[in-house]
Amino acid sequence: MEGIYFYWIAWMAWVYTTFIMEKNKERLGLSLLFLILIILSPLQLTLKTYHLNVVHFVILFISFTLIAKKTMAQKVYLLICSLTITIAYVTFQLFELFDPIWLFLDRKLLLAFVLIYLTLMLTKDRFSRMAILLIGSCQGELLYGFVINKFRFEYEIGSFLFLDVLSIAFFIVFVWLKIELFIHYFDEMIQKNAKGETRINE
Length: 202
What we know:
This protein is mainly alpha-helical. It has one domain (58-201). The protein has helices at residues 4-20, 25-40, 54-65, 72-98, 107-122, 126-150, 160-201; strands at 44-47, 50-53, 156-157. A hairpin with a 2-residue loop joins strand 1 and strand 2. The chain is globular and about 70 Å long. It starts with a helix and ends with a helix.
């Protein structure tokens, strides 16, 4: 069933931001955002021959706000990173369209793996990682939709199939970032204990 990953992960994200996340200004905004994404997900716009899911543009807009406060040099670099993910996304989709036999596993998981790998390799900052993942994927979906439309195929840009892939990638990158933070915190604790023992011995 298309959309199952999106709904599960979106609801998990809403529960996390509403009940688990530390109380701050971001908490309410994120809770509302995930709720809005769930509510708007069935809505579709039709512009001439293009069919577009509303959530796709909400995600794209929000992701651009993540890099709005970056310096110009950082913005350029992140947009280049996003373009790399965009090209990878479109290439994967076109390969699947014209030569589907090479997809030996679930295409959602394979495409999500490609997005995750590139996201983690291209930048280290956690907000930047989320931004390039979302921007690159949304731009890739938009570009692929335009290409498919030229061949007169009916295609919904930002469909539940896309939202599933993006949700899987987003969730795994989020978990990865949490693991990195835990390792960093654990490493700092070990170093503090080591310094404390050194002072005692002195």
